[in-house]
Amino acid sequence: xxxxxxxxxxxxxxxxxxxxxxxxxxxxxxxxxxxxxxxxxxxxxxxxxxxxxxxxxxxxxxxxxxxxxxxxxxxxxxxxxxxxxxxxxxxxxxxxxxxxxxxxxxxxxxxxxxxxxxxxxxxxxxxxxxxxxxxxxxxxxxxxxxxxxxxxxxxxxxxxxxxxxxxxxxxxxxxxxxxxxxxxxxxxxxxxxxxxxxxxxxxxxxxxxxxxxxxxxxxxxxxxxxxxxxxxxxxxxxxxxxxxxxxxxxxxxxxxx
Amino acid sequence: xxxxxxxxxxxxxxxxxxxxxxxxxxxxxxxxxxxxxxxxxxxxxxxxxxxxxxxxxxxxxxxxxxxxxxxxxxxxxxxxxxxxxxxxxxxxxxxxxxxxxxxxxxxxxxxxxxxxxxxxxxxxxxxxxxxxxxxxxxxxxxxxxxxxxxxxxxxxxxxxxxxxxxxxxxxxxxxxxxxxxxxxxxxxxxxxxxxxxxxxxxxxxxxxxxxxxxxxxxxxxxxxxxxxxxxxxxxxxxxxxxxxxxxxxxxxxxxxx
Lengths: 257, 257
Known about the structure:
three-stranded antiparallel beta sheet, alpha+beta
């Protein structure tokens, strides 16, 4: 079974401050949990919005410092975006998947297929400067580091998920999606499990961390600086842990790239 | 704001029975809630697995009664699936999107892009007969009907979501996805809303019912006959209600069909 729990609780940690480069996210999470009157327990899952992780890691870039290449300028003309932003997108990407006016979908160097390489220009308070916020350098490593530090701080074995809002083919609207995970199975593989009647299950892999990320997004809202950290309590699983990278479909398996 | 709540609770209704054609889902949901010690409140959201809705609506088909067309036989040879199942898939679909060995992705007549037109062969107890379960005829209407009946039964204005497990391009694993919705915004449109710093938001549409569907899937698990109904309490929204059909990206907007 993927889960044995019958109840889940999601708690947005209240009063989470705006995060700056170098801030200690572990301390901020522990303090936020204390404000919510919550002590971490084994099996709790902490979901953090990508923005706070990126900011703590200093992934904010002043667009004034970016010189667009010729390739970026050409592509910017095609997608009608700021050439400096497009330059950053290209630096963060392996390749362009789709380019249309107002649309730039790339394969991020992490393997994520996403608009604008996940670079965000909203909700950035930068004293008038035009800033862009890149994804964390290695979100799975960021999640694992925070998981280890939360264990040190609380004695509890918690899972950590870093989420971001992703658009999807075929469907309108963004949904919370896992870009980093630690201490839980991001992907649950049930191949071979029988169903209730002993028949082999048709659905064999579950995007577990993506479902966790989506659930947390319901509380964060899209302007996720306001409520960027959500605690999820009551989830249980039997599968071994694996990182969010396990959710990436290799190109050889993919029919839509 | 999409949500103003700081806590969410999800409760899988215990002891939900196996559902047969003609069963009164409203009564079963009310009885399940009573077993959980829950009385419906305004703003509660009830999420039902597609399977129980389909079964109650008599969407089970005995494969022995299906005669595959020549087109179905040819396609079945290509995708290495039962020609009778492929015949049902074609009847339920507008067109084939991708066909490969063991893969048959179609545009369902409802507009959903999905494997096998959502037809399920697992978890069906049919006394030895080979049965296939089709999607509900009109899941948004099914959700609306249940919403209205739950209001009559409980006096509470609840939202209803019908979910199913969908595979995705680019990412491994299925996630819970909304195929029907009533009494809540399936899609939240925030175009024009300012972010925390008064800048226009870059993310303007949220797949709200898909996030609800994914959250509920965490409790249902994929063998969702066991826990097919989940109550979600604590969610608030300010957007007007719209059905799950609002989540369908029109082909003219879609770069990956």
